[in-house]
Design brief:
Blueprint lengths: L15 H7 L2 H17 L6 H25 L1 H6 L15 H22 L2 H22 L6 H5 L1 H15 L4 H24 L1 H7 L4 H4 L2 H24 L5 H22 L11 H27 L6
Helix pairs in contact: 1-3, 2-3, 2-8, 2-14, 3-5, 3-6, 3-8, 5-6, 6-8, 8-9, 9-12, 9-14, 12-13, 13-14
Amino acid sequence: MTGSTLPIESQVPAEWRDYFALTKPRVMSLVVFTGLCGLLAAPGHINPVLGFTAVLCIALGAGGAGALNQWWEADIDAQMKRTAKRPLPQGHLRRTDARDFGVALSVGSVAIMGLAVGLLAAAILALSIFYYAVVYTIWLKPRTPQNIVIGGGAGAFPPLIGWVAVTGDITLMPVLLFAVIFMWTPPHFWALALFVKTDYAKAGIPMMPVVAGEASTRRQILIYSIVLFVVSLLPWLIGGTGAIYGVAAVALSGLFVAFSLPVAFRRAGEDDRMAPEKRLFGFSVLYLFALFTALVVDHYLLGQGALA
């Protein structure tokens, strides 16, 4: 944490909306969705109540990690246009309250997961929270332009957790689902970083476009997109899914590469309106929702549902 640049903290009690905003609900929605898909696509059965509990714990854990991230980065958020409206930069609640809220959600989610669902699922959930709140937020993000590459593992855990909640063990298939999100994260986030790089530069965050430059970032987006294409096909190629997922993976990942090409070969000084990196960023969110939906549809039409 840096020297405080925050406004004076409000003496008015924070509203529930402020605490909800600390959980990063947009990010949480994707985390919860992929975790649910991992649970639904897993072989075997889980009681619906326990299945709901597992997904709830994933949501609470993600929310806790998001709150801890905002607690630690409150000064940085205050310097960036994209994050300046968050509750802490606006002085809507005390910094210590955000920290305590994050700790409570994190500890509670892991404890409930362990007691109700299983110790392995709880251990992976705890690892994912630690990875995001400590490894990524405190260690990697302010120190290296590879923060997103290495830190991408934090957001890749949910389908693995959902799968383990059903099966109780780790096999190749959930590891591949982890790998899909891991490879998806750099091109997804770097596309965003390209059109908000001035924010990161102002806050002193060494994101790839700031440190390595736009040209290098654009090339790496294309490289990771191609790797993602290959990795997304592996669940199908090993026989873990059927043709529904396979066709969806080919089509969606092919489009991902297609959206990456104009980003990679865009020349400096071109008109910013409808910039290709903005189109890639928008598609990348749709991509993950669509791919994991195809995974579940494939499982239920060609396999057997997990809830029983």
